[in-house]
Design goal:
Elements (H helix, E strand, L loop, with lengths): L4 E3 L21 H5 L44 E4 L5 H10 L1 E4 L5 H8 L4 E4 L7 H6 L6 E4 L9 H6 L3 E4 L5 H16 L2 H9 L17 E5 L3 H12 L3 E5 L5 H6 L3 E2 L2 H6 L3 E4 L13 H6 L4 E5 L8 H10 L2 E6 L12 H4 L3 E3 L8 H19 L15 H23 L9 E8 L9 H12 L12 H7 L3 E8 L10 E7 L15 E8 L2 E7 L2 E6 L3 E8 L4 H11 L4 E8 L5 E8 L5 H9 L3 E8 L1
Parallel strand pairs: 2-3, 2-4, 4-5, 5-6, 7-8, 7-10, 8-9, 10-11, 11-12, 12-13, 14-15
Antiparallel strand pairs: 1-21, 14-16, 16-17, 17-18, 18-19, 20-22, 20-23, 21-22
The structure holds 1,4-dihydronicotinamide adenine dinucleotide (NAI) and 2-oxo-3-(phosphonooxy)propanoic acid.
1,4-dihydronicotinamide adenine dinucleotide (NAI) binds next to α6 and α8.
Main location: plastid
Subcellular location: Plastid, Chloroplast
EC number: 1.1.1.95
Length: 618
């Protein structure tokens, strides 16, 4: 088959008064930056790219027992703050949202309130389980964890509900590290026990002889932000610091004089072990009977991470047998622990009630950090501290902005070309780029193609958070391929192609030689363009809606279609014809600002040379 020849500008309709490239340059970028948190069920599709805050407030769920709180300003989103948050963060939130500070809610009360809230802010004391997302009725868009550990939030359920989870990953690092060091030194010198004894009227100088830290080996398990700050401080105390972390960089460790070692070495050689990994299925009960059995007799354990990383019954056994000489614990499997907890009451155990992040400075910092993240997310911006969505750096975001718009529109076009719309199983996306594959992050683009593919044929609202999940759930397999082009890697992507395999098309010319519905697009001057349909090359700016016609290439076609549209005052924004060869078949792509009526579309179909046509909403 001969290569189709584009004959774009030359064939542009003359009947309309708009320039060929009518979209203002870059006009699409800002809406992309507001994309990930799209209004859902109660929202209009036309508002898909609108920020949540600007949208009318979602109607209270009919299932909700409560009316909106008195004094709330309509039009503002509602943020439920379920645990104590620093004043500066609350002030920021109040500038932007209706803020409901309700501390100490029971699970039932939380479920009852949540359907009236767009965002929820918690610390470690509130369990945000699947029941909370289900009770929200689709309104909850952001969960902000005012701290680091997100083990109290059901991330899978959040993702399935398209709810973004953000945390405050940096503001309490130093506080947690300082608390770790405080527990280490207090434990080594029996500070808590001696303090209690003296206050009880005793003077027990022989009983509370401590151990020195200098020259002792400290094993840090989890060499992340807190772990490395603990390491720095422990080195200052003259300790020999080693660390185990399967994902940490040895160079970063070496830079602060820490050697990364195996788990085995970290456990068998340590005089002190300090825990700083997150609680995950892999770290759950990591310190168990087997692990304690490997440790040096007389080891001392510090836990400022999560109670669940230690098998607490095994720790009691290890303390009783003398394998573990002392433990200092800030966190517990169940918080607060039972009043008769053997572990808490053990005389060789020093405890604090989850105070790692509780300094004045850290709480102010965390409150500001989470308020900013939640406000940004409600505005629809991509949060840098997103926990269940790809984190894409700001500069990458702005560079990819027009391609993100293109990606969604290509997905939207491709699915509308499928006869019947359903039954899509296999979609291939090809990115042609001069960039090395690891220099091009396509997760965002894939999510937007998925959004474009799924939303026109379902009631599901897809965003960056739930795109992969939604595709998988609907049995749509999306594969990605790269074509590495020669040339300058200045532009991230030359073109994006979306192909749907094993389906019939309501516009058979959209099927390529290899049998898939194929659409391809590029970004020109910041504006997304459709540049190929099936085997036909076209060039039409992706705005408004689109009519695709296949016709016998002959003079007068543009005028014929243009005048049918003109009769109904439908403005043509762009027109382009791609043909296989002169006077053979051609595909005409016509961009229209308004949706033509059924009768106008019928009239177009009745133009004798038009063999097939389709109207597509972008
Ligand atoms: N007690 C408190 O008030 C506070 C507790 N935390 C806890 O401390 C944890 C760590 O916080 P950050 O250092 O800020 O997080 P981070 O994400 O910077 O560091 C966690 C490190 O653990 C490592 N890790 C993951 N799996 C591991 C495994 N199986 N073995 C060893 N290392 C593993 C990761 O590679 C990462 O480097 C948080 O997840 C939270 O649970 C944090 C702040 C305050
Ligand atoms: O940030 C963390 O992971 C913490 O454990 C701090 O918890 P909190 O916010 O003090 O309940």
């Amino acid at each position: 088959m001969a290569a189709p020849t584009p004959t774009t500008a030359a064939r542009a309709a003359t009947t309309h008064n708009r320039p060929l490239l009518s979209s203002p340059r870059g006009a699409l970028a800002p809406s992309f930056l507001r994309l990930p948190l799209l209004p859902r069920a109660h929202a209009q599709r036309a508002r898909l790219l609108a920020p949540v805050a600007a949208a009318a407030p979602a109607a209270p769920s009919t299932a909700s027992p409560d009316a909106p709180a008195a004094g709330f300003v309509s039009g503002k989103p509602t943020v439920l703050v379920a645990e104590k948050l620093g004043a500066a963060g609350l002030a920021l939130l109040r500038e932007f949202a209706n803020v409901d500070c309700s501390y100490g809610l029971s699970p039932e009360e939380l479920r009852a309130k949540i359907s009236l809230c767009d965002a929820l802010i918690v610390r470690s004391g509130t369990k945000v389980g699947r029941d909370v997302f289900e009770a929200s009725g689709g309104r909850l868009r952001v969960v902000g964890r005012a701290g680091v550990g997100i083990d109290n939030v059901d991330l899978a359920a959040a993702t399935e509900h398209g709810c973004l989870v953000v945390n405050a990953p940096t503001a309490n690092t130093v506080a947690a590290a300082e608390h770790g060091i405080a527990l280490l030194t207090a434990m080594a010198r029996n500070i808590a026990q001696a303090d209690a004894s003296l206050k009880a009227g005793k003077w027990q100088r022989n009983k509370y002889v401590g151990v020195s830290l200098v020259g002792k080996t400290l094993s840090i398990l989890g060499f992340g932000k807190v772990g490395s700050e603990v390491a720095r401080r422990a080195k200052g105390l003259g300790m020999h610091v080693i660390a185990h972390d399967p994902y940490a960089s040895a160079d970063r460790a070496r830079a602060i004089g820490v050697e990364l070692v195996s788990m085995e070495e970290a456990m068998t050689t340590a005089d002190f072990i300090s825990l700083h990994m997150p609680l995950t299925p892999a770290t759950n009960k990591m310190l168990n009977d087997e692990a304690f059995a490997k440790m040096k007799k007389g080891v001392r354990i510090i836990n400022v991470a999560r109670g669940g990383v230690i098998d607490e019954d095994a720790l009691v056994r290890a303390l009783d047998s003398g394998i573990v000489a002392q433990a200092a614990l800030d966190v517990f499997t169940k918080e607060p622990p039972l009043a008769d907890s053997k572990l808490v009451l053990h005389e060789n155990v020093t405890v604090t009630p989850h105070l790692g992040a509780s300094t004045v400075e850290a709480q102010e910092g965390v409150a500001i950090e989470i308020a900013e993240a939640v406000i940004g997310a409600l505005k629809g911006e991509l949060a840098a501290s997103a926990v269940n969505a790809p984190m894409v750096p700001a500069e990458v975001l702005s560079e990819l902005a027009p391609f993100v718009v293109l990606a969604e529109k290509l997905g939207r076009l491709a699915v509308q070309l499928v006869a019947g719309g359903g039954g899509i199983k296999s979609v291939k996306v090809t990115y042609a780029s001069a960039r090395a594959p690891d220099d091009l992050d396509t997760r965002l683009l894939r999510a937007m193609i998925t959004k474009g593919l799924i939303e026109p044929i379902s009631s599901v609202f897809v965003n960056l958070v739930n795109a992969d999940f939604t595709a998988k759930q609907r049995g749509v397999r999306i594969t990605e391929e790269r074509i590495l082009l020669d040339g300058s890697p200045e532009t991230p992507i030359d073109y994006i192609q979306v192909q749907i395999a094993n389906v019939e098309s309501k516009f058979p010319s959209a099927i390529s030689e290899t049998g898939e519905i194929t659409v391809e697009g590029r970004v020109k001057d910041g504006v997304p363009h459709l540049t190929k349909v099936g085997a036909f090359q076209v060039d039409v700016s992706l705005e408004g809606s689109l009519i695709l016609c296949r016709q016998v290439d002959q003079p007068g076609m543009i005028g014929a279609v243009g005048s049918v549209l003109g009769e109904e005052n439908v403005n043509v924004s762009f027109m382009s014809v791609g043909r296989l060869a002169p006077r053979k078949h051609a595909v005409m792509a016509i961009g229209v600002d308004e949706e033509p009526s059924k009768s106008t579309l019928t009239k177009i179909g009745e133009i004798p040379a038009i063999e097939e046509f389709v109207f597509l909403k972008l």
